[in-house]
Design goal:
Blueprint (H helix, E strand, L loop, with lengths): L6 H12 L5 E4 L2 H12 L8 E4 L5 H12 L6 E4 L17 H16 L1 H6 L3 E6 L22 H22 L5 E6 L7 H6 L8 H4 L2 H11 L4 H4 L1 H8 L9 E3 L5 E2 L8 H14 L4
Parallel strand pairs: 1-2, 3-4, 4-5, 5-6
Antiparallel strand pairs: 6-7
Helix pairs in contact: 1-2, 1-11, 3-4, 4-6, 6-12
């Protein structure tokens, strides 16, 4: 699973290991990776956990990671947990806006490159971590960056919307293949990502900035919880036998299926997301 060295990702990895899966966690920092593997090992009931280093903001690193995993045979579960929200605009080493890469393009590319291994490991599962922030998304995918200024919360929601649209499309594409495709919404969680960005009103468009402190406090009181609770939807999506073959579901913050955001099934959105993804991260 990606981004499994801390926060929701680490809690998810521990939950998968407790349920007997041999977990591979992927991240940038080898020291954090080593500490994560030590923690995961204390609860593991299956194979030994391990860490693989990769910068998931680099499409080259994603391709190298997929190539390595492909040499190791069938794959049972892929959890794309990687994500990021930034207060200021950033570009990746590939010259692409970083929010879109980390929240959509990187998991899209890794998933596509590992489909043969997932089919071979069937019945298998793909779990893409979503977010309620998609409701604040700008639904324009003519280009990698929407027009106007950069506002981290809206751009994060837009990238998560792109990934959810792709996830639901992939679920239909792989239906009957033995690969179940699900999305998981962790809800609000108290993590380094939210603490580092959610306190800044500049992550939302100017008309919302005066109200942002109030909205943020309401969000924290009503939905935010520890990472261990926020990991439950991903753990359920990856392991619950009741979900076998039930592709295209969104597992909500209470770890039960919930309705998907209707914008994620809009045909134009789906078509534009797929076109943009293929242009930015060609598979061949």
């Amino acid at each position: 699973m990606t981004a499994g060295t801390g926060g929701i990702g680490l809690e998810t990895a521990m939950g998968l290991a407790e349920r007997g899966l041999a977990v591979t966690v992927v991240g940038r920092d080898a020291d954090r990776g080593a500490r994560a593997v030590e923690r995961i090992a204390t609860v593991a009931t299956g194979g030994e956990p391990r860490f693989l280093a990769a910068d998931l903001a680099s499409l080259g690193d994603v391709r190298a990671l997929a190539a390595r995993l492909a040499t190791e045979g069938p794959l049972k579960v892929l959890v794309n947990n990687v994500g990021a929200m930034f207060p200021d605009r950033r570009e990746t080493v590939d010259g692409i806006e970083a929010t879109f890469v980390l929240n959509h393009l990187s998991p899209y590319l890794l998933t596509e490159l590992l489909l043969d291994q997932l089919r071979a490991g069937g019945p298998s599962r793909i779990v893409n971590v979503s977010s309620g922030a998609i409701r604040a998304a700008r639904r324009s995918f003519d280009a990698v960056e929407p027009p106007g200024g950069y506002y981290g919360f809206h751009w994060y929601g837009r990238a998560k919307l792109a990934n959810l649209a792709y996830t639901l499309h992939l679920a239909e594409r792989l239906r009957g293949s033995g690969v179940t495709v699900l999305a998981a919404d962790p809800g609000g969680a108290l993590t380094d990502m939210t603490d580092g960005t959610m306190r800044s009103p500049k992550i939302v468009a100017p008309p919302l900035r005066l109200l942002w402190p109030l909205v943020r406090r309401m969000f924290e009181r009503s939905t935010a919880g520890p990472a261990s609770v926020a990991a439950r939807p991903s753990i359920v999506a990856a392991t619950d036998a009741a979900l076998d073959g039930r592709s295209g579901l969104l597992i909500g913050p209470r770890a039960i299926p919930v309705p998907v955001f209707r914008g994620s099934t809009d045909p134009r959105t789906v078509d534009d997301v797929l076109r943009l993804s293929r242009e930015l991260a060609p598979l061949a």
